[in-house]
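Collaborator request, handled under Task 6.
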Amino acid sequence: MTLAALCAAGLSGTALAASTPLPGKVFKDCKDCPEMVVLPAGSFTMGSPEDEIGREPDEGPMHEVTFKKAFAISRFQVLAGEWKAYLHSTGYTMPDGDTRPGRECLAGEPRYPMSDRQPAVCMDWREAEAYAKWLSKKTGKAYHLVSEAQREYAVRGGTRGPFPFPFDEGKEYSIAKHANTYGPADGFSYTSPAGSFPPNAFGVYDGHGNVWEWTADCYVDTYTGAPTDGSPRLDSQECEDRRSIRGNDWTEAPVFSRSANRNERSEYTRGDWLGFRVVREL
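Structure tokens returned to the collaborator:
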């Protein structure tokens, strides 16, 4: 990433010189840990304007969020190989989940073929949270599930529109060149391996499609009263039943992949369409 791009994202030259590690740095804390990329400190506008196509009421009111410190986020959704390493280390056995024919999670495995480079799926929110705690204990570093604000900041990559990339040429609303969503045009009939599509300007992959991602937040259907420091929203009595998820999956229309799009599920939900991403404090 260029100096100009970092400054546009809200990082001054003075802050750049003092930052360790620098934004854009990629690292792993252990052999089987997720690959992380450092994001710059800075501010962004969270949510979407009322005239954005597909915009839902829960994407407002738009508000400024400021990250006073840089942080690192997993470049890819946590991968199947990384999840297997966790299961092997802890001895945890995944239960079955989802009962839809052809869409079952059987002992934590989807019905479609899986490689170690595809996103891990079929875990509920509690299991994703346990993985982040395991990473923290294993590495001695502070890992946690991504907050809604951290994720939106990360996938926007310094942009303000619905996507950080253009629509496909000659099509009204297609992002097949940049993301794995509904339809065969992107080349995938289920999840795509990490790195199948280009990263955004922050070096983040698959921010728009492939699988939905658990976040640390309780879902609240308005941003009124939402934190402005990038921390997760936890001021809800319905957290267990309404956890925020972000990102869309390979079965849904591209409009649900917009940077500001939100959804919710019970934290006990499992699916071959649902994974997660982690953050590491610096």
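The cover message to the collaborator said: "The longest strand covers residues 212-218. The mean pLDDT is 94. Please let us know whether this matches your experimental observations."
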